[in-house]
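Sequence in, structure out.
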Amino acid sequence: MTALDEYHKLEAIGLWRDQGENQRREVLITLGNTSLIISTLSETALTHWSLAAILRVNPGEMPALYVPIEGSEESLEIADDLMIAAIEKLRAMIERRRPHPGRLRGVLGGLCGALILGVAVFWLPDALMRQTVLILPEAKKREIGQDILAHMIELTGPSCNQSAGQAALGALARRVFNATPSAPRLVVLRDGIPASLHLPGDLIVLNRSVVEDYQSPDVLAGFLLSEYIRMMDSNPTQALLQEAGLWATLQLLTSGQIPAKHLNNRAATLLTSIPNPVSDEALLQRFAEAQISSQPYAYALDISGEDTLSLIEADPLRGRPNAPLLQDTRWIAVQEICSG
């Protein structure tokens, strides 16, 4: 059904551009009940535009040019007269339903506007970002994490995808995070990143050095547990939106997409950032929950043990045998994950 009773279904062909500099592509436009649905010609949905927010940027000209929200780089060009007439009719109906205060309320409206502006400037952006993160589906967060990773790979080179190593790394993750609701996904990059970092969608990215330079998987377990603590203490999706800004947040809410330039900027920021320190108390608790010795990781950070003495002395498995985290053949496969 459409938003207009006279049309059971209304479709047209248009030209859609997702970014200001990107090439336009031919798409199928469908008028929905509350949104304009933009799909590929094979009817795979690309995005949804809210009918209450859509704007025409070239009134009176043909073909009509629309944007999903004021200031957006995304645009849609339509030449179909029937679709244009339907959209314009809906825009007029929505405009009539909006309140238009009279002169007697002008002064009060101005005062209220100033108050609202103050709230919008100092409170709304952060509140909107927090609310967006809360309502964003986990699948979308995973998609955003993958998109940022793709931009990272453009800067660092391809990820390590040796199949036996990937399978063994997944097994190690399940063992290390057996006390958590779900194990994060792990990706190894060849170069250009810190020892570890995390992305939206429970994605941990590792430098190949942490899987190749140590003799024991217990050391890698320490890097994984440390990064997991950072991931739990932060909100990588909210950090992305705070860096991208209010307009990017609105675009995510209205179209389900974040402009690629913001994803690329976030990738560059993470690649050059110094990871936040993790407290020994929090890390020891994670080692204890996972039933893994903290000593191998402590000595990997400082071979003398002087700077990591608390991790050594408070080892939750001190004096007890530490069962191997992986069979030797599987650990070798992890260490050779970048050999393919």
